[in-house]
Design goal:
- By secondary structure, this protein is of the alpha/beta class.
- It has 4 domains: about 5-35 and about 185-330, 3-Layer(aba) Sandwich (Molybdenum Cofactor Biosythetic Enzyme, Chain A), CATH 3.40.980; about 40-55 and about 150-180, Molybdopterin biosynthesis moea protein, domain 2; about 60-145, Beta Complex (Molybdopterin biosynthesis moeA protein, domain 3), CATH 2.170.190; about 340-415, Beta Barrel (Beta-clip), CATH 2.40.340.
- The protein contains 7 helices and 26 strands.
- It has helices at about 15-25, 165-170, 210-220, 235-250, 265-275, 310-330, 385-390; strands spanning about 35-40, 50, 60-65, 65-70, 80-85, 100-105, 115-120, 120-125, 130, 140-145, 155, 175-180, 185-190, 195, 205-210, 225-230, 250-255, 275-280, 285, 290-295, 305-310, 340-345, 355-365, 370-375, 390-395, 405-410.
- The strands form 8 sheets. Strands 16-13-17-21-20-18 form a 6-stranded mixed beta sheet, sandwiched between helices. It has a 5-stranded mixed beta barrel with strand order 22-24-23-25-26. Strands 5-6-4-7 form a 4-stranded mixed beta sheet, with no helix packed on it.
- Helix 3 (about 210-220) packs parallel to helix 6.
- The protein is elongated.
- Bound molecules: adenosine monophosphate (AMP) and magnesium ion.
């Protein structure tokens, strides 16, 4: 997203967003283990093995139209009598000599027929004989057996994350169950003395825990199994105990809050007490206090841990840009490359110093081409704009946004795949 040739000066000690994204993708290891699931539970799961077609697709030569199947060699000026009727679901029949067949979309083309004429191009005379208007080529409107896929061909490779279209493809090939990578088990916790559960009454100074609700939804969307460890107080001992439990129970630990450098921020010392920190601090706004570490002797042997910032929008950005690609690799798939393209800004704004900024914007299409407008207040605690935004306008460190100029835009919808 730099790429403009201008020097970017990041705050000393903070790492570049794309460098840490690459580092996380590189550090991620796919989980071992698979399970067999029925097709209707396979959405968002990752294929554990290549799936080969056991059938030709289509299975028989069949009609692409409602119309009449005929033999071109037998087409005569006095018309053809309709001597057969072939609805979808019928078996393969033989066309009687000198006649044609009424046929419907998807029905097997009778043996001896070499074209289907759509009913819109047919005239029926008083005796019910079929006259064809215009030319008809051999094979017209016939979907040939195996024209899409032959038995034995690769349908989907291992590592495919199954969406609705993939599930339809597998269903069309008669596949009722399949082997998928086991779900990634993610231990999730929030930290902070001020946090209370949604649904509880708030007294001044308390804050409802929105990060855990958000991250649970994001983890579920990503197909992970969540081990919810709740809210942990700003207490080094409690945090260490919970992290040790998370280390033993989960494939990955995700926590939020307490990861800055204030004296109430106990996450980093807890990680260091049980393992180590790989990196801490990314040059993005929001999202700076992001840490990646492990609980155990080293990263390959330990349980990886992603510590997200406490501010909810910073946590969301950290998940989308950094944690999600890591999770995707752990799930046995490839990290989905970031989609980004230029979009014009419909506003001016002073840029952040020393950090790349991700402004929450909506795209306004009323002028034909999209124009990015601020989705609302841009504070890292302000979820309203984040919940309205279509995506992020990415402003390089130390650059200002000038109305009418184009900037890199990252659609938020890409984080759902
Ligand atoms: P911290 O990183 O712990 O200093 O938190 C930074 C800000 O984020 C503070 O205003 C916290 O109250 C807020 N915060 C931390 N965790 C959460 C959470 N789970 N839900 C909502 N806000 C949070
Ligand atoms: Mg805190």
């Amino acid at each position: 997203m730099s790429g403009c040739g201008c020097a970017e000066v990041a705050t000393p000690g903070l790492l570049d967003l794309f460098a840490v994204r690459a580092r996380l993708i590189d550090a991620a290891r796919p989980v071992d283990g698979s399970e067999t699931v029925p097709l209707d539970e396979a959405c968002r799961r990752v294929l554990a093995e290549d799936l080969l077609a056991s059938l030709d697709m289509p299975g028989v030569d069949n009609s692409a139209m409602d119309g009449y199947a005929l033999s071109l060699a037998e087409l005569v000026t006095e018309g053809l009598p309709v001597s057969l009727r072939v609805p979808a679901g019928a078996g393969v029949m033989r066309l009687p000599a000198g006649g044609c067949a009424r046929i419907f979309t998807g029905a097997p083309v009778p043996l001896g027929a070499d074209a289907v004429v759509p009913q819109e191009r047919v005239c029926l005379d008083a005796e019910g004989r079929v006259h064809v208007e215009g030319e008809l080529a051999e094979g017209a409107n016939i979907r040939r057996r195996g024209e899409e896929t032959r038995a034995g061909a690769l349908l989907l490779p291992a590592g495919t994350c199954l969406d609705a279209a993939a599930i339809a493809l597998l269903a069309s090939h008669g596949i009722g169950q399949l082997k998928v990578v086991r779900r990634l088990k993610v231990a999730l916790l929030s930290t902070g003395d001020e946090l209370i559960e949604p649904g509880m009454d708030r007294v001044p100074g308390q804050v409802h825990d929105s990060n855990r609700a958000m991250l649970k939804a994001l983890l579920a969307q990503a197909g992970c199994q969540v081990l919810d460890l709740g809210v942990i107080a700003d207490d080094p001992h409690a945090l260490r105990l919970t992290m040790a439990e998370a280390r033993d129970e989960a494939d990955l630990v995700v926590c939020s809050g307490g990861v800055s450098v204030g004296e109430e921020d106990h996450v980093r010392p807890a990680i260091e007490g049980l393992g180590g920190i790989d990196f801490h601090g990314v040059a993005i706004k929001p999202g700076k206090p992001f840490a990646f570490g492990y609980l155990g002797d080293d990263l390959p042997a330990g349980t990886p841990l992603i510590a997200l910032p406490g501010n909810p929008v910073a946590s969301l950005v950290g998940w989308q840009l950094l944690a999600l690609p890591f999770v995707q690799v752990c799930q046995g798939r490839e990290a989905v490359p970031l989609q980004q393209f230029p979009v014009m800004a419909g506003f001016s704004r002073r840029g952040p110093r020393g950090r790349r900024e991700l402004l929450r914007v909506v795209l306004d299409w009323t002028a034909g081409a999209p124009v990015a407008r601020l989705a609302g207040g841009q504070g890292s605690h302000m979820l309203s704009a984040a919940s309205q935004a279509h995506g992020y306008l990415v402003v390089d460190a130390n650059k200002n946004v000038e109305k009418g100029h184009a900037y890199t835009y990252c659609p938020a919808a890409q984080f759902l795949v």
